[in-house]
Amino acid sequence: MSLATDSPTAPAPTAGAQSAAPTNFWAIWNMSFGFLGIQFGWGLQMANMSAIYEYLGAKPDEVPLLWLAAPLTGLIVQPIIGHLSDRTWSPRWGRRRPFFMIGAVLSSLALIAMPNSSALWMAAGLLWILDASINISMEPFRAFVADLLPANERTRGFAMQSLFIGLGAVIASAMPWMLTNWFGVAASAPGTIPNTVKLSFFVGAVAFFGAVMYTVLTTTETPPADLAAFERDKAQNAGVLAGAREILAAARAMPATMRQLALVQMCTWFGLFCMWLYFGTAVATDVFGATDPSDPRYQQGIEWGGVCFGVYSAVTFVFSFFLPPLAKSRGPRATHALCLLAGAAGLASVAVIHTPSLLLLSMVGVGIAWASTISMPYVMLSAALPAGKTGVYMGLFNFFIVIPEIVAALGFGWVMNNLLDNNRVAAVVAGGAFMAIAALLVLRVQVPEETA
User: Fold this and answer.
1) What letters, b where the CB count within 10 A reaches 16 and e where it falls short, cover 360-384?
2) pTM (whole model) above 0.70
3) Domain spans of the chain?
4) Which of 137, 276, 286, 398 is the most buried (most CB within 10 A)?
5) pLDDT tens digit string along 365-393?
6) Which of 43, 21, 48 is nearest to 32 (CA)?
7) Which one, of 188, 154, 194, lies nearest residue 176 by Cα?
8) Which residues lie closer than 8 Å to 229 by C-beta, 6 or more apart?
9) Could you give the C-alpha distances from 340 to 46, 402, 423, in angstroms and in order?
């Protein structure tokens, strides 16, 4: 479906220098569908990587450092891919879609290999490859929406991404539990990576590739408004050094809204990282009572942790329908603050819950916060970005996601060992505290008028 021809009235070109998309539900559906597959990759990783590391012999205080691959690859890959996609144009494949395809192929291969790791170093190395590959696909998707939709439609566009992120994560997170309890997949030897996890990653590889290719084949990008000027600028600024200078210049000229959102993002993602690192293993040890990964209750707890992640993702899916009208009535700033407070309350409640089913209630708040986190900051940011720089700025914006994750990966193991006595639940509650701080910080962000 060509986004340029679905409406009789074509809006003016957007900041991405492409003609804006019409207000057509299926056009927005098609351009966002790839996120369903991308979230399979993220969802399987978030729900299972800490357990995979512990199955392979890692201790709780060693887990954060083993996760270092995720933020480091984002720090390096996202601004580079954003810059390259800003400067790419193919009459057949467009600007962003070549990167979607490359990332999808590499990510699918890494997903197949990951659960077959035989040693910690192998799993950690594959996580580097997987995260780099997912970032190649994911980063241009944010710019894709800003390219193709006018400012007054971007809330719908980013909310649609939230919808697919939620739906994909529901299935991916709960898949090992479903394979065990619904389909009777046989258990593996105690203390080894379960067969359900291996099969889930294989299904995730197929879903990732298929969903991304659906977007590639159903959504048509239109060329820059002045293609000759675009090609001249590209030729004049070719080369690695020129690209690096352009990225640094963009960082120095960062809009005020982006600077203000930086602290919000850093606190939010530090809190989320604490949850992703330790929630599943906290459920296994503190709720199900497992003593170590060879205890049968450990797999049961990890699978139930995946179900909990599936519930917060289901809440994200449902709540995504309510985000656009809520943001319209309250504004994106107040909406995001309320949603982050809901997430903080959900994570804090884990400290007093000892019944597995009650953990699902905690995940309601987390799902509301997650739906807002993957949409509202981008709504506030997109209208503040200069023309033709959407990709590189979206890549730079992810610095404020990966920097707190790098800090957590390098330093939170020491905190776990020396301050929290390797208490996984305490780490999850700390994540809730950071999310509450983020809710207060978002109230000071200056929101451009067209997104308010």
Assistant:
1) bebbbbbbbbbbbbbbbbbbbbbbb
2) no
3) 25-224+240-451
4) 137
5) 999 999 999 889 988 887 777 766 776 77
6) 21
7) 194
8) none
9) 20, 19, 24
Nearest to 97 by CA among 136, 43, 53, 154: 136
CA distance 310 to 363: 9
Structure tokens at 135: 């970032």
- Cβ-based neighbours of 138, under 8 Å, separated by 6 or more: 35, 38, 103
Residue 3 to residues 43, 218, 226, Cα–Cα distance (Å): 29, 9, 19
CB 199 within 8 A of CB 172: no
Question: To which residue do tokens 């293609």 refer?
Answer: 227
Burial (Cβ within 10 Å: 0-12, 13-18, ≥19) of residue 246: middle
The alpha helices in 149-194, defined as continuous H runs, are 154-181
Tokens of residue 191, six digits? 């203390």
Which of 20-29, 82-91, 158-167, 331-340: highest mean pLDDT? 331-340
Q: What are the helix (H) ranges across 219-289?
A: 227-236, 240-252, 256-282
Record the tokens describing residue 156, joined without a space. Answer: 């719908």
For the 25-224+240-451 domain, the top CATH level (class) is mainly alpha
CB 247 within 8 A of CB 83: yes
The tens digit of pLDDT for each residue in 440-449 reads 999 999 876 6
